[in-house]
Amino acid sequence: MKSTTLLQLKHVTATLQSGKTILHDVSMTCLPGKIHVIMGPNGSGKSTLAKVIMGNSEYKMKGKILFGHVDIAKETTEERAKRGLFLAFQSPIAISGVSVMNLLRTAYQEIRAKKQKKTVHQKPTTGTMSEFLETVKKYAKLLHIDDSLLSRSIHEGFSGGEKKKIEVLQALVLEPKFAIFDEIDTGLDVDALQIVARGIELLGKRGTGCIIITHYQRLLSYLSVDGVTVMKQGRIVKTGNGKLVSDIDKKGYANV
Amino acid sequence: MILTKKGMQTCNTPFVPSLYAFGFHAPDESVYSSGRGISEQVIRDMSAQKGECAWMRDFRLNSFAIYKKKQMPLWGPKLSDIQFDRLFYYVKPIKSQAQTWKELPDGIKKTYDKIGIPEMEKKYLSGVSAQYESEVVYKSIENTLKKKGVIFTDMDSAVKQYPELVKQYFGTLIPSGDNVFSALNSAVWSGGSFIYVPKNVSVALPLQAYFRINAANMGQFERTLIIADEGSFVHYIEGCTAPIYSTDSLHSGVVEVFVKKGARVRYSTVQNWSTNVYNLVTKRARVEEEGIMEWVDGNIGSKVTMKYPACYLVGKKAHGELLSVAYAGGVQIQDTGGKMIHLAPETTSEIVSKSISGGGGRTSYRGLVYIGSNAKGARNTSRCDALILDSLSRSDTYPKMDIRQPQSVTEHEASVSRITDEQLFYLTSRGIPTQAASSMIVNGFIEPIVKALPLEYAVELNRLMDLEMQGSLG
Questions:
Q1: What are chain A's domains?
Q2: Engineered SS bond to B274: which of B198, B244, B268, B470, CB 3.0-4.6 Å?
Q3: Lowest mean pLDDT among B54-68, B91-105, B226-240, B352-366
Q4: By the CB < 8 Å criterion, does B24 face chain A?
Q5: pLDDT tens sequence across B283-307
Q6: B422 in contact with A, Cβ within 8 Å
Q7: What integer pLDDT is reported at residue A14 of this predicted model?
Q8: pLDDT 10s digits, B358-407
Q9: Partners of residue B423 in chain A, C-beta under 8 Å
C-alpha cells in the first residue's frame, strides 16, 4: 500500500463560532510513510489543527487541505476518514454499550467497503471478516491489549494507557494514509510508551504518514522523526528536521 | 446454550423484518363476533360460545359489574380517544383449535408466513403457542414438557382442563377491581397462556407466544397465568406485532405470575404494536422466599403504552428485577415503569429503565418502590436513563418511594442525555456515517436490556432502532 499521496495544508485559518480565531495561516506538508512532529506550548492550536484536518464542524475554516490533488476542506469527517485520514484523540470519548470490537468492525467495514468499491456500501465477504479478526488479534497482541478490553464499551472506565493503546490499535487496523496522534504520549508509563511507539513505527513502515502532536521528547526518542513544526499562538513559528526536537528540549520553546 | 426456538436461528435469518412491515392483515375468517360494544348479554354469549362453566361466567359478570363502577385513571396519558362502545370484545377466529400447521386456514397461515412462524415450525416443531385474534388457534407442545409435568396451554383450555388449579390462582394477584382495565379484562378476557411448572423442574426451552390483532376495532384482552412451583425455572417470551388500522385498537392484557419458594421466572416481552394501538397492561408477580422474578420489557410500538410490571416480594430474600426499554417516536407515548413491593426481610430488587424519545415522542418513567415495615434489610436499586433525540421530544420521571423500614437501602439514579457532537465526531472520524453513528449510540444505550433478550429479539430491537434513527434524523 505504499502511497505517494501528500497531505498539504495551505493557508489554513480556523475560527470558532464565537469569532475567536485559533489558527492563523497555517501551511504545512506531510509525506507518506514519514513521521512528522508538531510541537508547541499549551494553547498553541495543535489540537485544533488536528480537529480541523479531520473536519470538525465546531470551526469555520478557510484555506485548503489537499489530499493528493483533491481539496478536502469541504468534505465531511466521514468522507475524510474514507479517504484515509485518521485521528487518535487526546481524550477519546466513551460510548456506552458500543464495544471496542463493534466499533472496529463497523469502521473496518465502512472503510473497507470504500476501498473495495467507491460507490455504495458493500458488506465484506466472510474472507475479509476472518481477515479482520486476525488483524485485530495480531495488533492487539503487539500492543499488549487484553482480549477482555475488546469486548468492553469503548473507552468507558479505561485507564489512560488503555485509551491510548486502543486509539493506536484502531489506526493499525484501519490502515489510514495519514494518522494524527494528538498527545498520544500523555499519561503513559515507560512500558506503554515503548509499545505505542512500536505501533506508530509499524504504521510508518507500512506507508502511513504519521503526524505526532506532543509536548515532550519522551516518545520521540523511540522514533526516527523526519520533520518538525513548532506552533505558537496558532501560527507556525519554526520548521526543521528531527534535530529541532532536542533543541527544544534543551532550550525550551521560548528560545528556538 | 440458547434454547429458544427462534433464538437458535442466526442473525442471517431474522424472524421479523421491520416495524411497519406488519401493517398488513389477512382477510377476516372469523366465525363468531360479539358485535361492537359490551353488555352483560355480550359476556353471557361469549362465555356460552367458549363453553365455560358457571364459575368463570360468574367471574366475568361480577368483573363487568365492577368495571361499570370504575373510573378511568386521573393521571398519565390521555385515554379519552378510546371508543369503548365501538370495540369488538370477542371474535372467535376458527371453530376449534388447530393441532398442526396444516390444519390452519390459509389466511392465517399467510399472516404467520409474514412473521416467519412456519420457518420456526419447520425447524422446531413444538413449543409455540400463537394467538390469532383473541384465541389461540395453533399450538404444539414438546413431549418432554409433558413428561416433566409442565403444563403450557392457552388460558381458555386451561379453564376447562385444569379448573381447580386455575381457580386457585386466577384473579387472586390482580383482582378484577384492581383498576379499570383489569376489571374490563376480567370481564371479557380471551386467549393468553397458562403455564404450570412442577416442583424442581427447570424448563430449559423458553416458552413463547405470539400475539396479533387482526380485526379492526377489536379489543384484545389476553390473560396469562404462570405458576412456577418450588425450585422450578421457566422463561416465557411474548412478542407482539400488529397491523395498522385507521381506527384505534385497544390491547389490555392481564398477567399474573406466581413464583414459589426458590423458583425463578423470567418474563420477556417485545411489544411492537402499530401506532394506533392503546396498550394498557397490568402485570404482577408474587415472589416467595428466595424466589426470583425477572421482567424484561421492550416497548417500541403502540400509540400509548401504560405498563408497570410489579413484583410483590412476600418471602424472605425474594428478588425482583425489571429491565425495561421504551422508544417513543412521533405521536407515541410510552408511559412505563415498574413497582417493587418489599414485604419481607432481606428482599432485594433492581429496576433498570432506559427510554428513548425522538421526533416529538414522549416517554415517562413511573416507578414505585415500597419497603414495608417487615422488610428489614431490604435493598433496592433503581436506575432510569433517558435519551432524548431532539428538542421536540420529551421525557419525564416520576419515581415514588415509600420507605417504612429504616434498616433498608434504596438507591435511585437517573440520567438524561442526548447524542453529543463529540460522540458523533469520534464515530464519523472512523468512517461511520452520521446516521449509522447515531444508531450505534442508541443501540449502545439500550444494550444492557437488549443483551438480556434472546438473540433474535435483540437483533430485531436493534434493527427497529436503526429504522427509527433513519426516520428521526434529517
A1: 33-47+87-255 (3.40.50.300)
A2: B244
A3: B91-105
A4: no
A5: 999 999 999 999 999 888 889 999 9
A6: yes
A7: 96
A8: 989 999 999 999 999 999 999 999 999 999 998 899 999 999 999 999 99
A9: 93, 95
Complete DSSP assignment for A105-137 = HHHHHHHHHHHH-SSS--PPPHHHHHHHHHHHH
Alpha carbon A230 to its chain's center: 17
| Cβ contact, residue pair A95, B423, below 8 Å | yes
Nearest Cα to Cα of residue B453 among B318, B276, B272: B272
B465 has a chain A CB within 8 A of its CB? no
CB pairs under 8 A between A and B: 76
Quote the CA–CA distance of A78 and B466 in Å, as a whole number.
18
Residue B10's pLDDT band (cuts 50, 70, 90): very low
Confidence check: pLDDT of A194 > 80: yes
What pTM does this model have? 0.80
Test mutation, A57, A79, A98, chain B, max B CBs within 10 A: A98
Contact B428 A98 (CB under 8 A): no
Which residues of A are less than 8 Å from B440 in CB distance? 95, 98, 102-103, 106
B contact residues 335-394, partner A, Cβ 8 Å cutoff:
none
Q: What is the grid cell recorded at B33?
A: 363476533
Q: Using a CB-CB distance cutoff of 8 angstroms, which residues of chain B are in contact with residue A57?
A: 421, 425
Distance CA A233, CA A40 (A): 9
Pairing mode of beta strands B193-197, B233-241: unpaired
Nearest to B431 among A57, A98, A107 (CB): A107
Distance CA A92, CA B361 (A): 31
Contacts of B443 in chain A (CB under 8 A): 97-98
Tens-digit pLDDT profile for residues B121-141:
433 323 344 444 334 433 455
Nearest CA in chain A to B419: A95
Of B421, B433, B440, the CB nearest to A98: B440
Shortest distance between the Cα of B324 and any Cα of chain A, in A, equals 16
pLDDT of res. B169? 98
Q: Which among A58, A44, A54, A42 is positioned nearest to A9, based on CA atoms?
A: A54
Task: Name the pLDDT band for B101 (thresholds 50, 70, 90).
Answer: low
Q: B428–A81: do the CB atoms touch at under 8 Å?
A: yes
B431 contact residues in A (CB cutoff 8 A): 78, 81-82, 107, 110-111, 114, 174
Report which secondary-structure segment, H or E, holds B197. Answer: strand B193-197
Closest CA to A84 of A98, A103, A70: A70
Give me B290's grid cell.
Answer: 428466595
